Amino acid sequence: xxxxxxxxxxxxxxxxxxxxxxxxxxxxxxxxxxxxxxxxxxxxxxxxxxxxxxxxxxxxxxxxxxxxxxxxxxxxxxxxxxxxxxxxxxxxxxxxxxxxxxxxxxxxxxxxxxxxxxxxxxxxxxxxxxxxxxxxxxxxxxxxxxxxxxxxxxxxxxxxxxxxxxxxxxxxxxxxxxxxxxxxxxxxxxxxxxxxxxxxxxxxxxxxxxxxxxxxxxxxxxxxxxxxxxxxxxxxxxxxxx
Length: 242
Known about the structure:
mainly alpha; Vanadium-containing Chloroperoxidase, domain 1
């Protein structure tokens, strides 16, 4: 699986996903843009993960070992921060790249967007392939600990391919870059690092992360067919560029 997934995903047009257009779901207060049933199914468009005897899996293992060698380093500490998906942590992660200190009180529209993208970005969008393939995570294969050992029990129950952290981080980076295009380069770099953190932590294989980037880009395109998202995005643009 190639690193150009993210860039090719940016070329996906909203028309490609017109058949999946959904009305806003405002009843649960968590994911107002679309339901799990309305997602563009990642099982349909992603290829299977690399087989254990393939050259691609050899590269996966090498990437894992290179990441694990960073344990205890500043980059490992960054990856540990990146492992946390709560809204406050995501705001802290992306604020420097955005050039704006995000907070619930000072940037409420952006704060809400971060929260509202979490479920579709990290769960709905990658969920089809993740549940179908149920790929074993690298820390299980190598019998090592991740950046957050307290999360490992849940991670063992959840498939590794594609990376939901990466799809959410990619999606958020793209949304913020559209809202504040003068910071697009910084946001793209931070979103890329966010995905690589999953390899460094040992929570995902490199091919999981590569696939997650494409899933995030597909979800980004899908959201642009949904009026509720476009309204929320307009509010974020106004807030970040006033």
